[in-house]
Amino acid sequence: MSSQALSQNNERFEVNLGPQHPATHGVLRVKLLMDGEYIVDAEPVLGYIHRMHELMGENRTWAQFLPNMGRLDYLSALSYNLGYVELVEKMAGIEVPERAEYIRVITTEMNRISSHLLWFGAFVLDLGGFTPLLYAFTDREEILDLLESVTGARLTYCYYRFGGCYNDVEDEFLSGCLAFIKRLRARMPMYHNLVTKNVILRQRLERVGPVSAEMCRKYGATGPVLRGSGVNYDVRKNEPYSIYPELDFDVPVYHEGDSMARYMVRMDEIEQCMRIIEQAIAKIPSGPVMAEKVPKMIKPEPGDYYHAVEAARGTFSIRAVSDGKNQAYRMKLRSPTFSNLSLFQEASKGMLLADALALMGSLDLVIPEIDR
Amino acid sequence: MDLGINVIEMLLYLVAIIGFAAINAAYLVWVERKGAGHIQRRTGPKEVGPYGLLQPLADGAKLMSKQLIIPAGVDKPLFMVAPLLAMVPAVMIFVTIPFSENLVARDINIGLLVIFAFASVNVLSLLMGGWASRNKYAVISAARAVSQNVAYEIPLLVMTITIVLVSGSLNLREIVFSQAGAFWHWNWLPTNGNFLGPITFIMFFICYLAETNRAPFDLGEAESELIAGFHTEYGSMGFGLFFMGEYANIVIGSALIVILFLGGWYSPFPEVVPFLGSAGVWWFLLKMYLLIWLVVLIRWTFPRVTLWSLLNLSWKILIPFSLFNLLASAGLVKFLG
Amino acid sequence: MAGYFTNILSGTKSLLVGLSITQKEFFKKPVTLQYPWESLEMTPRYRGHIQLIKDPETGSHKCISCGMCQRGCPSNCITIHSEKQEGVKGKVLVKYELDFTKCSLCGQCIENCKPSAIEFSKEYNLASTRKEDFHYDLLKRLKEQK
Questions:
Q1: Is residue A334 predicted with pLDDT exceeding 50?
Q2: Which domain holds residue C7?
Q3: Distance CA A251, CA A223 (A)
């Protein structure tokens, strides 16, 4: 024991939350300075699962870097696929067939639902309720089965290609999606009755872990965290990409800024995703899913390129600098949860341990994405 | 001669009670796992024996054959005693519980007092285990467990006094006798002279959940916050004893509620189901296991409360209600009884 | 004061609703699959490790040892050994090494393959305690399939 802890007047002590801890869902370590049950300071320590994805991007050809995208945020891999693929298409000036765009949107939104469902389960698990996790998994399993029938993978998808998609989808997939949406619509009231309306859960989330819009701006928090703080910002609406402008959907915004607001944003987003998928399936045209003229070796014009997409956890953007070679000169991946985690230190000051874990759960952290 | 028979009787009761406590604790784990499985649309244990019925034995054999690891720097005597202290009082309590009119090991006049005296030792074991482990999570957990138990013992005892007032005895058998008859004669309904019967019943149930550290009040072992709480450092049979103590306490809690509120061994509808008799140990066990199932169901349904809302529930809702209830019942007994 | 009581009542009601949901689910059938005893059919697009396609005409593979799969692989898990043989046009494949421990199943090799000589296998029951067990020689594997 350190001399500091032994002195009579100082009853503060340090607790390591992680790198192995049930609540961190991965190898995140948070160094907590505690005064009894209160948190005096919480310092996130990163780097336990750093894999140098950005450097890999600078040492591989544009096509070779594609599978890495599924390994950033393994829960919504397709959003990341989409961001990278669209960036390279922007750089190389590749036109994507319309059918491919629709397939991309449908699969990405399915992936977003599965990510939110997993978050929902894991979050309630953090709060001590075990059963909703398994119910969410039952539904998520259906999505994984559907996506597996198209992409061949269950988690780390690598489905999009420069200029389109790896392969076409069958009508069974589309009807399967609609059947799943029908099923999930029927299940959502159950989730709300079991979890959202539960008085214990409301007590644990309402007015707990307030994050102001100002704090979000300061740390660059995006996604449901930002929308839960009353800022209406969604890349799909504000910097439209793909075919999102043609689809009618709402961006759920809550103004409370507490954990419950973030919870409600995600639950409402599931509903909006279902709306998007239904519209996209109704509108999907026939045609090719791969552009005709895709250069074999992509060598973009020298320059600075940027593209952002709305991933399940916030704005995912890539900045790539090309010097005209078949590799990137500089690759910068901006992952949303890195910024979302950054506000934890300030927001958790003075909180109870249990409340801080509710806040952490509501940020929806995926550790491999933070560390990249 | 008399003494010899007495000793043999004592020993028989002792073996029966320890056996009952151990089997119940072991098979409640099975019930919990199987129940949790089916609640979550899984199957639960199914490989060891038919329907996984031999799983508790396999678990027990595993726990007993594992090495008991004593981490460096722990307070060794306390560390070793704590698990025993969790199990032994639980077994002792079974001595006073009447399962039917005649099936009771020791019919003590102040049975209720004995139960609460032994039950309050439980919190000491959590405190000792948490403190002796020399683990920060365990210390936090021990502190939580103590404040929780202190807060919930007050309404629990106040409500018990209400029942004692109504039935006029501290003897558990007498309390059941005072509820003889069909279910409207029981203490859980206002018809038996207890003014706020149903509310007392529900509050008593909540308090017992909190006293036994069961979900949603399992703050002591909140696994997403404190790893495993006070038994973080325990392995093998040390953990096993804590575990069995917890389940034995659930059995005791349910038995106590059956005695105090649900008419003990009396049938709820003596005329309707004649072949089971109007009283019998099976009625007692049936009610007890139904309550235990409710406890299991609650664990797998609700998220955990925080320490503050737990204490709020006790000090702002349960204690005022139970005090009011006590006054009302006392007045009722005084002026009407 | 009225809020105090309505809060207690509505809270209790929400808890009872939750209990009724889990109790209802308890009586439904489990949705899980007991894996070692039962297993699902793999989808046609399932990605196992790659394998050489058997050409029904020749009974052999179609690989021309161009090395495009090796060059396209992001993780360098493919090594091709080929040699010039008398009387045969082009190079002949002698060994197709796949280090499956590094493979991320992205499919770049399959897309790069001009003669379509490789495909994803449907193997998923892969487990071993030694990493050498995942260093495959696909040519040998193809021959053993015969």
A1: yes
A2: 1-31
A3: 10
